[in-house]
Design brief:
mainly beta; four-stranded antiparallel sheet
């Protein structure tokens, strides 16, 4: 089955790396609904798209299992950029594309991450001090069929991602 491109295809590979003193990893792939995407990167981390009823959640797992990206705001009220949900791309009644009536992130998803929570810092201070940066760009997707009153979910997703972190962290 061909992947429907309902968002603009990436013109070129996502620029990843090249910043002095930083390490970087590029990740790309395709995933189907209900399945996890996972790739080992950096100093033993696992980049994951963890399945969720409407799509996936971006996670970056440390060796101890901690989700280092969980500090990405916002935490309440509007969708978090780590949440890849099909309904972000449909209008409020799920009958057509989101033309701005649904407040949700679109193809570019920026997130932050930090290392283990052993610093004693508050969550706000951890967010401010986070030195890990990630961007996931959705390059193609398929959604469940439009159905008034329902919430759309992804059935397939194609993406590119770049993660970068201070070189002193390893990798």
């Amino acid at each position: 089955m061909a992947l429907s491109l309902v968002c603009p295809p990436a013109r070129a590979a996502l620029d990843c790396g090249g910043d002095p003193g930083r390490s970087a990893a590029a990740v790309s792939g395709e995933v189907e609904a209900g399945l996890r995407f996972e790739k080992r990167i950096g100093p033993g981390w696992d980049f994951q798209l963890d399945p969720d009823p409407h799509g996936w959640i971006i996670r970056l797992r440390a060796a101890d299992g901690e989700d280092m990206a969980r500090i990405t705001p916002p935490f309440h009220f509007v969708p978090n950029p780590r949440d890849l949900h099909g309904w972000h791309f449909r209008n409020r009644d799920n009958t057509g594309p989101n033309m701005g009536d649904v407040n949700a992130p679109q193809e570019h998803r920026d997130f932050i991450f930090d290392r283990a929570d052993d610093s004693g810092l508050s969550l706000a201070d951890r967010v401010a001090a986070a030195e890990g940066r990630g961007r996931l760009v959705i390059t193609g997707f398929e959604l469940s069929p439009p159905e008034a009153g329902a919430q759309a979910h992804f059935t397939r997703l194609k993406f590119q991602a770049c993660l970068s972190w201070p070189g002193a962290w390893g990798g």
